[in-house]
Design goal:
Helices cover about 35% and strands about 25% of the residues. It contains 10 helices and 10 strands. The termini are close together. The relative contact order is 0.14.
């Protein structure tokens, strides 16, 4: 997988002065476009599109300082429709406009080319199982919230605090399959998984499909139908919320590169049980996956 990712980085370098097709990058990486975006974001700490933008503006910056081409020629070569659009993008990365940078010889920001290398880690065993599940339904209150990579997600905390205890009790009565009890479900995430992008958050239960018309569904609850598929289930214990956030990271940086599976579109389900003082958590993370031939 690492060799394929490095071939993908080389493919990007050869196309910085033209359109970079993510579907073509996925073919080079021998995986799906969805999984490539997820994997790259986890490994690089930034969305794939952001990396391409930063690399393109890095080489464009070198051309600006070299002074051999007009600024409009550079803008056109690197895919900007006008000098104004190029100047805005240039300033957003470098903190200075291209004209000023050329006149003053300003210091610019450089996004290094990424290379992925194997490091010997994995000293902590990862507990997981893979299960095939028939279709099921998620039922619970729903909110649109921002994605937070580290630390508490205040939008989710405030949303959950606003759910009436009676609603949660009614929901728990609907829980009739794994993972049992009230769970956190994230769906419709932006493919980039960039900090601050939005997702649908459900605080509810996994259950068999409600009757037509939503009979038996607590008032104000949303219903998410989930088709049959394969799921990888990971467990962890440790400080909250760090242990859970680190689990998400480790799955994409360690488990996927070491196992013949890739992520597929679908909701991500987290079952958490807190210690009495809420400082520790036992967690079970369900991710939709599909087998990948290697």
């Amino acid at each position: 997988m690492l060799e394929r990712l490095n071939q993908t980085m080389e493919h990007i370098e050869r196309r910085l002065d033209r359109t970079v097709d993510v579907a073509e990058l996925a073919r080079v990486a021998a995986t799906s476009e969805y999984h490539l975006r997820r994997m790259f974001s986890a490994l690089a700490g930034m969305p794939l599109s952001e990396y391409i933008r930063r690399r393109r503006l890095t080489v464009a910056g070198a051309a600006v300082l070299a002074g051999r081409e007009t600024l409009l020629d550079i803008a056109t070569r690197y895919g900007y429709g006008s000098g104004e659009a190029f100047a805005r993008a240039f300033r957003a990365l470098h903190g200075v406009g291209p004209g000023e940078a050329r006149r003053a010889g300003s210091a610019l920001i450089s996004q290094p080319r990424l290379t992925f290398r194997l490091t010997v880690e994995g000293s902590n065993s990862m507990r997981y199982r893979v299960v095939d599940r028939p279709a099921f339904t998620v039922v619970g209150p729903k909110a649109r919230v921002p994605l937070v990579h580290a630390g508490p997600n205040r939008a989710i905390i405030d949303f959950v605090r606003g759910i009436a205890r009676e609603t949660l009790e009614d929901l728990e009565k609907l829980s009739d399959q794994e993972p049992q009890g009230v769970v956190a479900v994230c769906d419709d995430l932006d493919p980039s998984r960039a900090e601050g992008t939005e997702l649908d958050y459900y605080h509810g239960v996994v259950t068999s499909a409600p009757a037509p018309g939503g009979a038996g569904v607590p008032g104000g609850a949303a219903v998410l139908s989930v088709p049959a598929g394969t799921w990888a289930v990971f467990t962890t214990s440790g400080p909250a919320p760090e242990a859970i956030q680190y689990l998400w990271r480790d799955v994409f940086t360690e488990w996927f590169p070491s196992n013949p599976y890739r992520s597929r579109p679908g909701p991500e389900i987290l079952r958490t049980r807190m210690s009495p003082d809420t400082t520790e958590a036992d967690a079970e993370l369900w991710l939709p996956v599909e087998r990948e031939e290697r």
